[in-house]
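Lesson 9: reading folded outputs for more than one chain in a single document. The general rule is that every protein is listed as its sequence immediately followed by its structure tokens, and records are never interleaved. Here is the first one.
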Amino acid sequence: MQNSLMRITVDIPDDDWDDLRKITGESKKSPAISKAVTEYIKRAKAKEFGRLLREGSFDFPMTNDELEKLS
């Protein structure tokens, strides 16, 4: 699958920009914002996966004890 890019204009307060650069380790705007967006999406997907696990959306044929015995 080929990634396409979207060019946008974003207003970011200076304090937030400074924090974003420090957190991402990027000094240029596009890589810093891209990295932040990617990380946000990964965390949102992990949160949703955790919610689905807690709600019992997945059917596992073995108990936790049975799984641990396999290790």
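And here is the second record, again sequence then tokens.
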Amino acid sequence: MEKKTDVLVIGGGPAGMVCALTARKYYPEKSIIVMKDVEEGVVPCGIPYMLSALKDPRDNASGSGPLTKKNISVVIDRAIEIDRAGKVALTESGDKYNYDKLVLAVGSSPITPPIPGIDQEGIFLVKKELPYLLKMVEEMKSLRRVLVVGGGFIGIEFADELSHLEDHQVYLVELLPRLLANSFDPEFSALAEDKLREEGVKVMTGIEVTEFLGNGRVEKVRFSNGEELEVDGVIMGIGANPNVDLAATADLVLKGQKGIWVDEYLRTIDPDIFAIGDCATKRDFYTRKGISVMLASTATAEARVAGANLFKLKVIRENKGTIAIYSTYVNGLVLGSAGLTEISAEKEGFEITVGTAEAVDKHPASMPFASPVRVKLIFSRHSGIILGGQVAGGISSGEIINIIGMAIQKRDSLTELETLQMATHPWLTTAPTKYPLVMAALAASGEIIV
């Protein structure tokens, strides 16, 4: 069967949905189809919280209601080939979709390392498929000794959630010397590690899984130091690779690129084909080097740019690079990171100055439910332009890191943060006399070269 549409979006995750909805806003007269290869998807960021925080793990399901309400058609099928010359997408079911504009929002797939025994029962990848994840949740709740492999965001969030389950012993193993090493400096990594240990999580760093042992079902794990650990189940949280196979059928994957190359407006080498989200290449905001950032927040920002500019450049993109902005929550501690860390800035050759500050997120500090907040800001030593920042503390830290992200995007100077005008209130914020963003900027200002 052949179908014709003005806009075909392949992928029904956050990027695909937001792109289609944005396109409907800017091009109300166009026909739009979203093609999903799974009928029941999930909210990616909510996957770990299906284990404990959500009373019903099905609450993390992602449906098509917002699309159909906006007269956007949804089809369940898998695209297997793109014919650029004919502007046709071929599907697994044998259908052909003729498009005017095509958006690839095909996401990423969890990394499956070549570890012997990884295909045994009881070992789960972090797939974005509701039935698969419901099975994982049901099984994990019945187990007692669970190993999480990977000390990045997804790994520590799974370990945190598993630790809340009754009678569970949780282990977390990370190949690098510390947790969250790619996004935080050591003093912030240590905070996450301490919080997990408080919950009884056994954290192992600087060690690698070399084999999963068992007879059809995992029973033990062997590590690079020769030690073995008895386990009932394993969650692999070591990251993902961009899905590029479909793009490769249309020669859209350039040599040396891990994802699909795109320009500032998310256009591929074919001006009628866009790529957004995890499958598209990212370039660092400051260095322009390729970086691996797979975040729903980044994906939806790209989706809004692409959706608005499918037929004409209606929205000028001012943020011409990817700012890696992360936040997470571990045992009551919020951690946020944006831009370059002190270590990564020095590695790139920047001359920097660093400012840190600590305060309490309510005032006076004796207010109920007050939490300490730590802020670290990294600036260019010569220009005073902000390069990155990190924050740790209570719930308010989740929005403080977004302020830092905006400062990076607008290339704010140290002086601008020193003179930041903010709203404060005893129940809501730190005192205006010691607002941590301002105090961290002041702490850094003594080293600026004029």
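What the second record shows: The domain at 112-238 is CATH 3.50.50.60 (FAD/NAD(P)-binding domain).
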